[in-house]
């Protein structure tokens, strides 16, 4: 007993430090436990307020949960006390999400000027290319016309039908939209997709190729063509276009979801998982396809618990998902 007491007296108490809190915060973030991550990272900052990395990581959590202004406050606070170069790229990313593209471009340029060989160099260059593309993209300018309200009403109805794969119901409405809004490219993209999934595969491919040649590098066309070629087993054409899409990172949430779903539908589950985890869940609430294909993706890469959670969450938000077959229910 005396020996055991002496041995116990020699044990040193564990006192967690900032690095310990930081590592716990990062692990929680990787598991998408964002509230826990915020608590751990806040403890790390309280323990060591001078370390810019801790505040930057907390800003990343805020970005992931759509709290862009809080993220920017943290990053600007870091820059007031320390020229921590990564902050410029993180600010550029946040301003892009907020739609402040000129501010985003400014910070991306600053990052590359200060750290041309930096960790985020490739991402910063890609972000600048996307911003230039967005500023020039006439597809989004079309939405500023006076007929916007009527178009949006139609679009919401068609979107619901397409999300629920009610292609036959969607086609008559799309025909009306083509008559009323013949210059709106989004309507033509939707029409091509509806044609494909109602059996007119070659007509759909021809239409989407025509749009692609007219517009140039249309992301919507590339996404549709990737799906069409994959399902039509046109392997060479599919490989060419999917290899381009793998390097595309859209700014708009709708396009991020479309691209992630496309990667999942074409069996690129590892790529799809990385894309899905970058999407702000708050922006994806209205998309049945997000929950369905994120769940399917997780199931195929072995994250079965997350797959079930996503499916159940999707069923709560979209009753129609209950009529779909979960991957673990397939025979």
From TrEMBL:
TPR repeat residue intervals: 18-51
SUPFAM superfamilies for this protein: TPR-like
Keyword annotations: Repeat, TPR repeat
Taxonomic superkingdom: Bacteria
Record carries keyword Repeat: yes
Gene3D superfamilies membership: Tetratricopeptide repeat domain
Keyword Repeat part of the UniProt annotation: yes
UniProt protein name: Tetratricopeptide repeat protein
């Amino acid at each position: 007993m005396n020996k055991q007491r002496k041995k116990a007296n020699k044990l040193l108490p564990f006192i967690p430090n900032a690095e310990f809190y930081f590592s716990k915060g990062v692990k929680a973030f990787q598991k998408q436990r964002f509230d826990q991550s915020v608590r751990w990272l806040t403890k790390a900052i309280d323990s060591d307020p001078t370390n810019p990395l801790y505040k930057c990581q907390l800003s990343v959590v805020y970005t992931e949960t759509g709290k862009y202004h809080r993220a920017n406050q943290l990053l600007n606070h870091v820059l007031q006390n320390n020229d921590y170069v990564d902050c410029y790229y993180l600010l550029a990313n946040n301003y892009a999400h907020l739609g402040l593209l000129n501010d985003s471009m400014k910070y991306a340029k600053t990052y590359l000027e200060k750290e041309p060989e930096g960790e985020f160099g490739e991402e910063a260059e890609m972000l600048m290319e996307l911003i230039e593309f967005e500023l020039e993209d006439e597809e989004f300018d079309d939405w500023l016309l006076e007929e916007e309200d009527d178009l949006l009403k139609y679009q919401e109805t068609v979107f619901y039908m397409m999300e629920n794969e009610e292609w036959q119901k969607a086609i008559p409405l799309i025909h009306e939209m083509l008559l009323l809004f013949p210059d709106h490219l989004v309507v033509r993209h939707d029409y091509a997709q509806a044609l494909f999934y109602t059996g007119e595969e070659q007509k759909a491919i021809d239409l989407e190729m025509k749009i692609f040649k007219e517009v140039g590098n249309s992301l919507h066309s590339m996404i549709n063509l990737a799906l069409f070629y994959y399902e039509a087993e046109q392997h060479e054409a599919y490989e060419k276009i999917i290899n381009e899409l793998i390097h595309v990172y859209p700014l708009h949430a709708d396009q991020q979801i479309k691209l992630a779903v496309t990667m999942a539908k074409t069996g690129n589950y590892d790529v799809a998982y990385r894309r899905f985890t970058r999407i702000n869940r708050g922006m994806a609430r209205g998309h049945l396809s997000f929950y369905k294909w994120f769940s399917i993706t997780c199931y195929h890469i072995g994250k079965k618990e997350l797959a079930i959670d996503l499916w159940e969450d999707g069923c709560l938000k979209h009753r129609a998902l209950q009529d779909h077959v979960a991957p673990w229910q397939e025979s």
